[in-house]
User: Fold these one by one.
Assistant:
Number 1:
Amino acid sequence: MKKQKLILISFFFLLFNINPLLSSDQNYLLISGKPKITDGDTIKINNKKIRFGGIDAPESFFFGKKQSCVLNNVEILCGKLSKDKLIEKIGNQIVNCKIEKNKDQYSRLIGECFLKNESLSVFMVKNGYAFDYPKYSKGKFRKYQTFAKKFSLGLWQMQFEYPWIWRKKNR
C-alpha cells in the first residue's frame, strides 16, 4: 500500500511538472524549453509550434517560396536572414513562452517568448528583423519598429515588402 501511494504521488508530480502550467494571472499557459527555430517569428518547443503574437517576420519558406529583399541591387533572402538572427540570439538557451488561449489560423499556439526575461518579439522588431503586425498587435511593438526604422537597422536598410503583403501576393 505504501509503495502504491509513493508511485501515485510520483506520477502526479511528474504529470504536473511536464505539462504547461497556468501563470498567476490565469490567462496564459507557460511553456519552457530549448526551441527549434522555424522562422523569425515561429519556434517549436516540445513539439508545440509557437507563433510570436503581434509581430510578423519575412518568410523563409511559404508554400515553397522564400521571401527576398534587395540591398544595393543584390537580392537577399530576408526570411532566412530573420530566422538566422533569431537562431543567433537564442543559441542553445532555454526560452519561456506565455501562451495565449486562442490559436492562429494554422492551429499554432500564439504567445510571447522570453530569453532571460527579454522579449524575443521586442528584440526582433527593435533590431529590424521583424515588424509590428498592426492587424494583431494593437500597436504593442510600434515604438520598437519606429526605433529600428529611424536607425535603418536590419531590414530597414533594404527594399522589402511587409510579410503580410508578400504572403497575399504569393499564395
Note: The chain has six helices and twelve strands.
Number 2:
Amino acid sequence: MKIAVCIKQVPGTTAVEVDPATGTLKRDGVESKLNPCDLYAVETALRLKEKYDSSVTAVTMGPPQAAAVLKEAFMMGVDEGVLVSDRKFAGADVLSTARTLSQALTVCGPFDLVICGRQTTDGDTSQVGSETAELLKVPHVCNVTEIFSVTDRFISAAAIMPRCLMKFRMELPALITVDESIAEPRLPSYKLKLATADRKIRVLTLADLPDREESHYGQSGSPTRVIRVFPPEHDVKKERWEGSGQETAARLFALLDEGKYLQNPR
C-alpha cells in the first residue's frame, strides 16, 4: 500500500503580522514548526506502514524553508518527502491550496490512501482535506478516530460525528482526515535524523504539474478574499487585593454583583 500524508509548516508563535494589502500572514523571519494536527496524521500513516508493510510519502506546500517539516517527518519514519514550492502558489486560499496539493499528489501517485490532519493552526478552516479529495475525485471521511483494517480495496474505520460515532467502510483510493484522539504521535528519532540527513527531497514547481495555468493557483486562483484584518484588543486589568478571606470574598461578591455577573444574588 502506498500512503501520502499532507503536512504543513505553520508559525510557531502568535506574534505574526498580517499583510494589510493581501490579508496573508507575513511568514518571513518567523519561527515555524510542523502543524500540531499533522503530527497525528504522520503517526497514523506510520502505524499503517508498520502493520501493512506500506510506504509513506509526506507532501508539503510552502516556501523553500518548509523543507524543515519534511526532515522532521523523516526523523519520525516517513520514507519520502515532496516539497511543492513556487512563488506562483503564494497567497493561496483553501481552494487554491487544495488544487495545488491534488495536482502534486497526482504527479507523485497514485496513492491508495491520503491522510491529512484535522486542521492547521494558521487557517483553522478544516476544509483543505475535503477539497483535495473532491479534486482528486476520491471518497473521503473527516475526523477519523480509529482505523480497524485496511485491505487492497477497502478501509474500515470510525469517525466522530456531531452526535454520534460513525463506523464505515470506504473503497480505496480514498482520503481521510484524522482526529487528535486517534494516536499519540511519536517523538523524532535522533538515530533516524542521522540516517536521513542526506535524504533527498523532491521539489515540484508549477512547471511539474499537469495543470500549468497560473490563474488556477496562488492568490489569483483564490475565490475568497480577506476584506479586513485587525488584531484583538487587550483590555485586561489586574488588581491585587490583600486582607482576610472574609474581606476579599465580600469585595469579590460586590464586584460581581455590580457588574451584573450574578443572577438573583439576594
Note: The mean pLDDT is 89.
Number 3:
Amino acid sequence: MTERPAGTPAISLYVLALLTLLHTLSLTDRFLIAAFGTQISLDLGLTNQQFGLVTGLAFTVFYASAGPVAGLLVDRFGPGRLLGSGVLIWSAMTGLTGMAKSFLGLWLPRSLVGVGEAILIPAASKILSARFDGRRSATVFGLFFMGGHLGVGLAYQLGGGQLFGGETQTWRDAFLQLGALGCALGLLVWLSVRWLGVSPPQAADSGALGATRTLIQTFVTTCRENRRLQLALLGLALVHVLYAGMQFLQIWLVQDKGLEPSEASALYGQVHLLTAIPASLLGGIAADQFAQRFGQSRALFVAIVLLLCVPFIVAFRLSSPDSSLFLVGMVVSVFAFTFPYGAMVASLIAEAPQAIKALVMAAALFCANVGVIGVGAFMIGASADWMAASNVAAPMTSALLGADALLIPAIVVYLLLHRAISARVEG
C-alpha cells in the first residue's frame, strides 16, 4: 500500500497551490497557439486543416502517447523529479515555438511540449489523492483544474493584447516569455521535490521489471473487470469535445461571426476567466455536497449539468454576436466544461486502486486527447475547409455543431455510470 506523504496541512496546501500554478502555466502554453490562431496562420501561411493538425494531432498524439508511460513511471518511481523534468521540457519547447518559421517548425516543438506536459496530470493526481481525504476529492481536483481553466483564459487575454506588452506584443514574444517563466517554475519544482514525493509500492524480491509488470497487470485487470471505470474513462473523454472546439474559437469568431482577431481573443479570454475560476471552484464543492447530502453519485451530477447546458451551447453557435443569447451561450460553453470537471475526475479516480492512480489518469488523458481532441480538432478543421470549398454558409459553425453533438452520448454514459455505482452501493 502507498504511504500517505508526511507533512503539515500547510505543506499540503502549498503543494496544491504549486500544482495549480503549474496547471495554469501548462494550459496557457497550450492554448496560446489557439489564442493567436489567426495571426499564426497568416504569418506561416497555414490552412484550417494544417492549423487543426498542429493544435490537434501534433500535440495530442505525443501528449497522449507519452501519458501512459509517464503514468507508469510516476506509479513506479514517484512523481517529484519526473514532474520537475517535465516542466523544464515543455517550457523550453514553448520558447522554441515562438521561433517557428514554417508549418514543420511549429509542429516539432508543439509535439515535444506534449511530451513534457504529459507528466503533469498523472503526477498531480497521484500526489493529491495521497495528500487529501477522498470525501473532498471533487473540491481538491476542482481547485487543481481551476488552474488549467485559468490558463486558457490567460492565453486568450494574451492573444487579445490584454496582458504584458498589449497589442504591440507579437505571438512570438508571448511564447518566448512564457517559456522563460516556465523554466523558472521548473526550478521551483526541483527545490520542492521533497514535498512532492509519494512512496511507490514495494514489490518484494521482484526487482524493477517485476514491479513494473505488476503495475501493468493490475491496470489491465482493473480496466477489464471494472465497468464503472470503463464508463468513467469514456465519459471524461467525450466531454473533451468542448476542448477540441476551443482550439478553433478565435478562428470561428473571426471567420463566421465577423469579429477582429484581437477582439475575439480578448472577449473569450475575459468570459473564460470570469466563468471558469468560480465554476471550477464551486463545481467541485457542489459535487461533493450533492453526493453527501442526497446520497447520489457525482456521475449523476455531471449528467444533470451537461443536460442543462446543451441547449445554450447550440444557441451560442447559432446566435448573432450582438445578441444577449450569444454572450450567455459563450458563458455556458465554458461553464459546461469547467463546472463538472472536478466531479468527472473524482468519479474516475475513485475507481482506481491507489497503486495505479497515475496510470489510470494517464489512460483517461490518452482516450480524451487522441480519440476526441486530436481526431476531433483535425475533423473540425478538415470539414470546415471542405464545406467552405463547397460554398456552405458559416462552415466553421456547422463543423463545431457537429462536434458538440458528442455531448449527447456523454450524458448517456454518465447516467449509465450513475446506475452502475448505485447498483454497487445497493449490492
Note: The first helix runs from residue 9 to 35.
Number 4:
Amino acid sequence: MKIVIVTGGSRGLGASAAIECARNGMGVVVTYNNNPDKAEEVVKTIAQSGGKAVALKLDVGNTSSFPAFRHAVATELETLWGRRDFDYLVNNAGYGLFNPIATVTEEQFDGLSNVHLKGPFFLTQILLPLMADGGQIINITSATTRVATAGVAPYASFKGGLEVLTRYMAKEFGGRGIRANSIAPGAIRTELGGGLNDEFEALLAGQTALGRVGEPEEIGGVVASLLSNENRWVNAQNIEVAGGYII
C-alpha cells in the first residue's frame, strides 16, 4: 500500500485530496493546525470506506515544530502500516489574505511566506529521508500566479515561488526516482479567504470557460490521479485545474 501525507487535510482541498487518495487505495496521513475535529471527520470518512488514515497536528508556518512532527510520522508509519517510510507528500496547507499591496503589513507578509513557501521547503527537507525512492511531491499552488488578481499579491508571489521550487525539487530528487509537480487550482468553492459570496462567485464563473467555479473534489481527483502509476512520466510540471479561467 502506498502512503501519502496531505498537509492541511482537515477541510477543503486537503480533505478532498485525502479522501480521493484513500479511494485509490492509499494509506493517508492528514495534518491539521486548528481543526482536530474536522481532521478526525476526514479520518472517519476514510475508515468508513475501508481505508486507513491518521490525523496529526502540524503548524506549517512554524518550522521549529517539524522535528517533532517527523517523529510522530515515523511512529504512525510503524504502528499503522508496519513501514519506516512513506511514498507521497502533498504540500497543501495554506490560507488566504485579501489586501492590496499598499496596505499589507510586514507581519501579514511574513505569515504568508512562512506557510506557503518556507514551510513547504523545510517540511519537504525534513521528511525527505522518510520518503521512499520512486515517490512524489505535489505542491498546491494557484491560478493567481498566472492571472494577476488585485488584493492577493503576497499570496500569489509565494505560490509562484513554490512553482519554481517544484521544478528544483524534480531536478534535485530525480536521482532517487522522486517526481515533483504542482497543481494550480482556479476558483474553488472552499473556505479559503472567507469563501465565496454570490456576487464574487458569479464574477469568477463568468470568467471561466465552463461557466462555474470548481468543487474541492475536482482538485482532489487530480491529486489522486497524478499520484497514480499511470502518470509516472509526468514530472516538473505545473498543472492548472481551473475549468478554463481567463483564457
Note: The chain has a mean pLDDT of 96.
